[in-house]
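User: Here's a chain of 259 residues. Predict its fold as tokens.
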Amino acid sequence: MFKHLVLHKPLAILDLETTGTDPQNDRIVEIGILKALPDGRHQHYNRRVNPGIPIPSEATAVHGITDADVADELRFEQLAPDLRAFLDDCDLCGFNLKRFDLRFLHVEFNRASQPLTLEGRAILDPMEIFHAREPRDLSAAVRYYCGREHEDAHTASADVLATAEVLDAMLGRYTDLPQTVAGLDQHFKSPNAVDSAGNFVRVAGEIRFAFGKYRGQPLDTVARMKPDYLQWMLTQDFFDDTKAVIKNALGRSRRREMV
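Assistant: Prediction complete.
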């Protein structure tokens, strides 16, 4: 499948269709995964999901999935154990994965009491390469890098195939980019990022906020002055490694108070 990308472990290329854009309140309605193996074989996981809530007409207009289409499908919590096993030991890849699909998976797996750990996984998002070189969307990426139109856009199975084709074509075009999954992961990761989402950065040895109202502020200062804000963050859909950074800061703050 890949002519340029070198795999040392399975790479799961995934795409989700959902009821909306808010992971806390919206739900997944379709999952498409293409698992590429280092030996050249590949496996597919394609399932529609009963979201347990109505699918808004605006969402149906995008992906074409209606309430009737998923009425007899399993809920995510019923699929979670098998899906988690399918993703076991896989690096992850997807177009707009970091900002959208991975956040939904994170929330849905936690809701099902089946946390999906990111530790030890490389996270590839071809959109980062694309926006760095040719800022557009997936359909434009297929047109530009693959020389064809992206048929059946916004169907999960077509989108994961297109993502794989675009990623591989990118590496053929940009020969200065690393040719391994781990190399690409590191290439587009901020050298100062403390967590996988880049919510915290290290500046002169000090962890600082990289987003929100405390952007640029030292995390330890916020932990000391505004611990309730960090406690609130722990209830939100931040990734586990982000929450670990927050918990460590709160722990340091409590220990200082005891001295």
